[in-house]
């Protein structure tokens, strides 16, 4: 039977333990499992390959993204690395120009290590202009991190099919609650599970979901072979967190919509970047020199890396998340030194706005 998303999330793991009837999924810490006899298996042999707790999590994530198979990994970057193991050396890729700095750092290393070539696009038009039969895969962030640029997944998927290119979408910012890339034609969707999906700033995880069984089986084989395994305890934490995803994300989104609107009225703010959905806002200050003072004056909002948690965080991409992108390059596409990124939490929005307002007061 099919239920609404909130119900599916709240019920993850319930009715799974037939022996005890445990409502909260048990944590199976064992690394190895006994065989009933020679050539026989309970379905579990070694926890890197398959674990009962992790299996419940992966089934829930596959259902959430409407994919055939999900694989959870030890971090968002290990999820990206797992996906790129699908492709041979010297492959060519089309990648969003504005993207997470860690992804750029990894792609730059792949180019040095095995001769892979990465072409970058700023929008759908520049993507279409560069797409040829030589492109193995397209890696799309939408909205992008941190400039919130959007590219149509469905339109990109049509182009990708025409050139037989694999379409990979990083869905970390929007989550499956706001977009489901596999339904729009993507082949693979991935997340930093550390962010909105787990949402409590206490868990490091990655998620890969495949559209087809063939891709899913290959990714599972690669995961078993290379071992970017998420532990059973962290899998349990992830399950616990997913149960409240819809409630958390909707609260974060409501707060972000209010804050983005008010931020545009502050004279110290040059421009606000907000796609209208989700809990992420970026904004430019009029005076770059005031950023240290602004950050030091915040009392409620925490100056820290990461995003998607219930606590509101503010990040300075220039020295934190995107520091590995060369200055001239990042400034060429708008990631300048006066940009700040706000991950909105579930606090009362009036308290968050009051904190921002007091921190934005300075002598001109």
Structure in a nutshell:
The chain is α/β, with parallel strands linked by helices and 364 residues long.
Q: What features would you describe in this structure?
A:
The chain has 364 residues and is of the alpha/beta class. The chain folds into 2 domains: 5-244, 3-Layer(aba) Sandwich (Aspartate Aminotransferase, domain 2), CATH 3.40.640.10; 248-360, Aspartate Aminotransferase, domain 1. It is 36% helix and 16% strand. It contains 13 helices and 12 strands. It has helices at residues 5-10, 52-65, 76-84, 101-114, 124-130, 153-162, 175-178, 213-226, 232-242, 245-263, 291-297, 327-332, 349-359; strands spanning 69-73, 92-96, 117-121, 135-141, 166-170, 188-192, 206-210, 269-273, 280-285, 302-303, 313-315, 339-343. Strands 1-7-6-5-4-2-3 form a 7-stranded mixed beta sheet, sandwiched between helices. Strands 8-9-12-11-10 form a 5-stranded mixed beta sheet, with helices on one face. The protein is globular and about 75 Å long.
């Amino acid at each position: 039977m099919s239920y609404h998303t909130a119900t599916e999330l709240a019920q993850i793991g319930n009715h799974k333990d037939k022996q005890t009837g445990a409502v909260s999924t048990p944590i199976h810490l064992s690394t190895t499992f006994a065989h009933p006899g020679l050539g026989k298996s309970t379905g579990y042999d070694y926890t890197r390959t398959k674990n009962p707790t992790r299996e419940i999590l992966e089934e829930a994530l596959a259902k959430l993204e409407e994919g055939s198979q999900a694989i959870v990994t030890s971090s968002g970057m290990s999820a990206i690395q797992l996906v790129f193991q699908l492709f041979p050396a010297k492959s060519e890729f089309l990648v969003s120009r504005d993207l997470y700095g860690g992804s750029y750092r990894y792609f730059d290393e792949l180019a040095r290590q095995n001769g892979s070539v990465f072409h970058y696009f700023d929008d759908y038009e520049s993507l279409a202009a560069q797409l040829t039969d030589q492109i193995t895969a397209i890696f799309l962030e939408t909205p992008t991190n941190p400039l919130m640029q959007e590219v149509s997944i469905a339109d990109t998927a049509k182009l990708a099919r025409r050139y037989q290119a694999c379409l990979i979408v990083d869905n970390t910012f929007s989550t499956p609650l706001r977009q489901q890339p596999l339904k729009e034609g993507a082949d693979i969707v991935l997340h930093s599970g550390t962010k909105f999906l787990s949402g409590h700033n206490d868990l490091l995880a990655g998620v890969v979901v495949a559209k087809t069984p063939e891709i899913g089986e290959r990714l599972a084989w690669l995961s078993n072979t290379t071992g970017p395994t998420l532990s059973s305890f962290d899998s349990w934490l992830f399950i616990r967190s997913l149960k409240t995803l819809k409630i958390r994300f909707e609260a974060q989104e409501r707060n972000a919509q209010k804050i983005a609107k008010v931020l545009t009225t502050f004279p110290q703010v040059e421009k606000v970047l907000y796609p209208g959905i989700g809990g992420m806002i970026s904004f430019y200050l009029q005076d770059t020199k005031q950023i240290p003072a602004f950050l030091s004056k915040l009392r409620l909002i925490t100056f820290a890396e990461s995003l998607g948690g219930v606590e509101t965080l503010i990040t300075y991409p220039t020295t934190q998340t995107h520091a590995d992108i060369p200055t001239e390059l990042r400034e060429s596409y708008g990631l300048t030194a006066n940009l700040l990124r706000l991950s909105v939490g579930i606090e009362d929005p009036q308290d968050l706005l009051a904190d921002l307002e007091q921190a934005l007061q300075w002598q001109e």
